[in-house]
Amino acid sequence: MNFQIRTGIWGHSRGGCVVVVERSVEWEDQMSACLKANITSQEFRDIRVYACENFADSIRDAHARGMGNGQAILVYDMAGSYIGLNLARRVLHYVRASLVDCSLRYVGCTRRIILVNGPAAFRFIWPLVRAFLPEITKKKIHVVTSAQPTLADFSNGSDPLTTIEASSLPVSLGGSVPDAQPLRILSQPMG
Fold first, then answer.
1. Regarding predicted confidence, which is higher, 165 or 150?
2. CA 57 to chain centre
3. Partner of 99 at 20 to 30 A CA spacing, among 127, 135, 138, 148?
């Protein structure tokens, strides 16, 4: 089985932080596949650690080139997602294992987390997921509640490190980069 989520680096914030976009529809497909293959929550967590190491390497590379402050902005796009309560209940152990462990291991890697295009069920699921997150991670999360995110939703006031411009977002999120053309794909293989 090959576990792939198209996490990609799309550009950099105004202050040089790496901008990463993940899409939940791919998470749903992959978690369903993991359930069918009897992948344990520990194995799933290990897959996430591998992905986070790729993520951290990309941040280190950018920082070594004089960009940013050694952190990234993570945009999590939930467009097209329909995670029913049945699937949510069945994959909660995956979410808990990967989010909690990765949040604790890589808490310094992410400057800001932006959640966009949440489905109706998100308002019920979010409090469950949020309860497992460390306080320092909760403070970094910004939930965009508008039905159609605009470029202004990706700006954090006057902080250039967390201000994302159109040249670092896919078109589907109000940016100018074609949706199939991130700067770099971060793969998460599993064998």
1. 165
2. 16
3. 148
Q: Is 16 left (phi over 0), alpha (psi -120 to 50) or beta?
A: left
SS3 23: strand
- pLDDT of 84 reads 63
Reported as a single tens digit per residue, the pLDDT across 50-86 is 778 888 888 999 999 999 999 999 998 888 766 666 6
17's CB contacts (< 8 A; 6+ apart) are 62, 67, 68, 69, 71, 72, 73, 111, 161, 162
Please say whether the dihedral angle defined by the alpha carbons of residues 72, 46, 186 and 89, taken in this order, is positive or negative.
negative
Domains and CATH numbers, the chain: 7-186 (3.40.525.10)
Taking every pair of Cα atoms in the chain, the longest distance, rounded to a whole number of angstroms, is 47
More confident residue, 36 or 101: 36
Say if CB 89 and CB 143 are below 8 A apart. Answer: no
pLDDT for residue 190 is more than 60: no
CB atoms within 10 A of CB 117: 20
